[in-house]
Amino acid sequence: MRNFAYHVPTEVVFGAGAVTQTAALVRKYGGSCVLVLYGGGSAVKSGLLDRVCAGLREAGIACEALGGVQPNPRVDFARRAIEKAVEMKADFLLGLGGGSVLDTAKATAHGAANPGRDIWKDIWLHPETLNASLPVGAIPTIPAAGSETSDSAVLTDEESGIKRGLTTQLNRPAFAILDPALAATLPPYQAACGVTDIMMHTLDRYFNPATDNQITDEIAEALLRVVVRNGQAVVRDPSDIGPMSEIFWCGSLSHNGLTGLGGKKDFAPHQLSQALGARFDKAHGACLAAIWASWARHVYKTDPARFARYAKNVWDIDATFSQEEAALAGIAATEAYFQSLGMPAGLPALVGRQSEAALDELAALCSFGNTRTIGTFQVLDQADMRAIFAAANDRL
């Protein structure tokens, strides 16, 4: 087992009806004036927003709501939310929705605690300067990003066309309410994107240079098996509370750091997919599915035994296969599973077949203009990124 430090301070309250505890949790963590952020109309149509705000006010907690967070959350909206939080003297942020809403709540909390500093130019691009934030509560309505317990958040700057993450312990929410019933009306495509994202958060930790973290590896493999077992059921019927409960909890565990303890996170597929998301404004889960198999086929020879183990322990691939055959079969099984959920296997199904110039642009975007490499399982330079995008461009 490798050395690690692990600290996840987020209090998790899980189960149907858990949302009724919102006001008590806000007060427990010091909130007296709350800005509630949400996305589109579903939180309004379902009555969830009204229930949450009414519960806060009944408990004597002031609150205002601001909606309109978009997928691939925008810096400009975060700036507006920060202005609102400062104006109302908010001392607590509450995110109600998917990962984009929760990430925006984190950004708003950082900006409101650091007035006078621009959230993108002064904080997001310089995370080492962030020393203060407001507490955040998370009520996810989509099992996917795991932002409710993670130390990360992502924003997209439309002006520069850059989508970039920020990692800091200050991103950890004070509490997370996981109520599987809140996802009962999810459209199948969103549910499929969520299942894909959950798997990818563990896959991007599992495929790393460390191969002697036995308990971490087996936790990761178990989580992946549970997601595979329940993912299709959730896409077919998100109101089926049994599978949805499993997927909801897997989403949080997959991105709170547990499934990668002792290893160096790879996250190259995430970086590649962020370039796709920034360029084409597509759902994060779909971008991940479109790139993962091409990444895997590009890097598996770095450690084919690792991929063969994954194939056996997650997909029950026949042990009589050679190591390379098992590795490739595991990759193919993953790709086929994503497709069974309705996810794309490559760029043509996601954004259409791309020109050579467009592939060059994607590689430059991902490499920050050839100034960085990505990944730890295999370190990838801009040429590798270009090759992976090209391979994904040939997948139908």
Largest sheet: 6 strands, parallel
Q: What letter string, H or E per element, gives the SSE order?
A: EHEHHEHEHHEEEEHHHHHHHHHH
- Overall mean pLDDT stands at 95
Quote the beta fraction: 5-15%
- Assign an overall shape: globular
Number of helical elements = 16
What gap, in angstroms, lies between the N and C termini? Answer: 40 Å
Low-confidence stretches: none
Computed CA radius of gyration, to the nearest angstrom: 20 Å
Neighbour order of strands in the largest sheet: 1-8-5-4-2-3
- Secondary structure: helix percent: 40-55%
Total number of strands: 8
Helix and strand composition category: alpha/beta
Please describe what this structure looks like.
With 396 residues, the protein is an alpha/beta fold. It has 16 helices and 8 strands. The strands form 2 sheets. The chain has a 6-stranded parallel β-sheet with strand order 1-8-5-4-2-3, with helices on both faces. A two-stranded antiparallel sheet has the order 6-7. A hairpin with a 4-residue loop joins strand 6 (152-157) and strand 7. Helix 8 packs antiparallel against helix 9, helix 10 packs across helix 15 and helix 11 packs antiparallel against helix 13. It is globular. 52% of the residues are buried.
Helix and strand topology:
Layout: E1 11-14, H1 22-28, E2 33-38, H2 42-45, H3 48-58, E3 62-66, H4 75-87, E4 92-97, H5 99-113, H6 119-124, E5 136-140, E6 152-157, E7 162-167, E8 175-178, H7 188-206, H8 214-236, H9 241-254, H10 268-280, H11 284-299, H12 304-315, H13 323-340, H14 347-351, H15 356-366, H16 382-393
Parallel strand pairs: 1-8, 2-3, 2-4, 4-5, 5-8
Antiparallel strand pairs: 6-7
